[in-house]
Design brief:
This protein has 172 residues and is an alpha+beta fold. 27% of the residues lie in helices and 34% in strands.
């Protein structure tokens, strides 16, 4: 909770997408750190699904989320898509932290294993993503979704395509 409060204190209140001029010349880690420092806006999905980037280091990204009733499926537990989105964010952003300036990525494949149901009785979970391999064209990462009680709720892996990002002087 303390990590989340510290991040929320620095966040830009308006959600959005960073403009190209705000990210040109920055490494992926610098972009993530700028988001944590409140220099770049948090993406709209963070509000929609009630999760937040709370830490970024080279090769690692940690998101924290609050499973809510709005995330329930017809069976009375948190929908697997919420698990997958939170894990995909941690996986992708972990890869992003390992990329130099001018490089981007997109998810090619994600595999999610749900090992325990989530309900609102679990107040917070963390998706901890770590890079396994960051190459020039392909990167892989793994992530775990862990509750406040230390229990594992899900784990995932991804393969990402790494590519050159257009700069301001290049058309998209």
């Amino acid at each position: 909770m303390a990590d989340e409060a510290a991040v929320r204190a620095t966040l830009i209140t308006e959600l959005g997408i960073a403009r190209r001029e705000q990210i040109d010349g920055r490494s992926g880690l610098e972009v993530m750190q700028a988001m944590l420092a409140g220099e770049l806006p948090p993406p709209p999905i963070a509000l929609t699904l009630d999760f937040l980037l709370v830490r970024a280091a080279f090769g690692e990204a940690v998101f924290q989320g609050k499973p809510g009733f709005a995330h329930y499926n017809p069976l009375g537990s948190v929908h697997g898509g919420w698990f997958a989105t939170l894990l995909d964010s941690a996986l992708g952003c972990a890869v992003h932290t390992a990329l130099p300036a001018g490089r981007g990525y997109t998810t090619l494949e994600i595999k999610v294993n749900l090992v325990r149901a989530l309900t609102v009785k679990v107040p917070l979970v963390r998706a901890i993503g770590k890079v396994v391999h960051a190459g020039r064209q392909v990167a892989t990462a793994e992530a775990s979704l862990v509750g406040h009680d230390g229990k594992l709720y899900a784990h995932a892996s991804t393969t990402c395509l790494v590519f050159e990002m257009p700069t301001l002087s290049q058309p998209m």
